[in-house]
Amino acid sequence: MNASGEARTVRILLADDHTLLREAMRELLGFETDFEVVGEASDGVEAVELAGRLRPDVVLLDVEMPQNVPTETVRGIRSVSPGSRVIMLTMHDAPQLVRDMVESGVAGYLHKNIGRQALTAAIRGAVAAGTSGGGRRLVMSVTHGSLMSDQTPSRLISPRERQILVLVAAAFSNRQIASRLSITEATVKRHLRNAFEKLGAVSRIDAVNRAAAAGLIHTRPMPNPGDPRSA
């Protein structure tokens, strides 16, 4: 409610690289009289840019988008628009991904297969938690095992090694990774060698697929058996 007693309009930014899904989401949210979709992004960089410009109350952020390392995108959004509540939407609940998102400061982590009522309730709950001053509260829709599973695998590789493997999975070269992370190519190669050894991997693709299978990073499998870029 605002000062006049009227229901507050919740301003929402949609971030998903699938146009059809964004259109469906916009239509679904349009049934709620207190919701307004103020912008749409198709990749992580655009999501951060629009969040800074529009200052939405809520960002519904797809995990799998181009130019999107989820933890970096979330932190970027929170940096340019501290009042925005970020709710991740995904079809996956790998334990490490859930923990990484929670640590990055998301207000919610939801499966895309939830219903309209659950989604709208999650949005209102996230906004209410952000305006009540009662501390951080998460809205979650994941399997119990995602949060309670043994966390030993998450310590197999370091946070920096995970970060680099995510960028490898996104087809970044060593030089591009070094530039993005403000480190040297030699440092990138050293982290990759360490990750290879820890994972028992023989190539970049093998390392990415092994890390993804263990829930250490979140990415689609890389089917190409060749590995054109050496570590």
Task: Name some characteristics of this structure.
231 residues, alpha/beta, Rossmann fold, 6-stranded parallel sheet, 10 helices, 6 strands, disordered C terminus
Commentary on this structure:
- It is a single chain.
- The protein is an alpha/beta fold and 231 residues long.
- The protein folds into two domains: 10-146, Rossmann fold, CATH 3.40.50.2300; 152-213, Arc Repressor Mutant, subunit A (Orthogonal Bundle).
- It is built from ten helices and six strands.
- The chain has a six-stranded parallel sheet with strand order 2-1-3-4-5-6, sandwiched between helices.
- Helix 4 links the parallel strand 4 (85-90) and strand 5 (108-111).
- Helix 2 (44-54) runs parallel beside helix 3 and helix 8 crosses helix 9.
- The longest helix has 17 residues, at 116-132.
- 36% of the residues are buried.
- Mean pLDDT is 81; it is low at 143-155 and 221-231.
Question: What topology emerges from the helices and strands here?
Answer:
Blueprint: E1 10-15, H1 19-30, E2 35-41, H2 44-54, E3 58-62, H3 70-80, E4 85-90, H4 95-104, E5 108-111, H5 116-132, E6 139-140, H6 144-148, H7 159-169, H8 174-181, H9 185-199, H10 204-213
Parallel strand pairs: 1-2, 1-3, 3-4, 4-5, 5-6
What's the total helix number? 10
Strands, total number: 6
Assign the CATH superfamily of the largest domain: Response regulator
The CATH topology of the largest domain is given as Rossmann fold
Helix content: 40-55%
**Beta-strand percent range:** 5-15%
In N-to-C order, the SSE pattern is EHEHEHEHEHEHHHHH
* Global Rg: 19 Å
Number of structurally distinct domains: 2
Q: What is the name of the CATH architecture of the largest domain? A: 3-Layer(aba) Sandwich
Judged by helices, strands and strand pairing, the structural class is alpha/beta
Residue stretches low in confidence (pLDDT < 50, at least 5 long) are 143-155, 221-231
Strand order of the largest sheet: 2-1-3-4-5-6
Indicate the overall shape.
elongated
Q: Distance between the terminal alpha carbons, to the nearest Å?
A: 55 Å
Name of the CATH class of the largest domain: Alpha Beta
Mean pLDDT: 81
Largest sheet descriptor? 6 strands, parallel
Domain Response regulatory: 11-127
Modified residues (4-aspartylphosphate): 62
Pfam family, one: Response_reg
Domain HTH luxR-type: 150-215
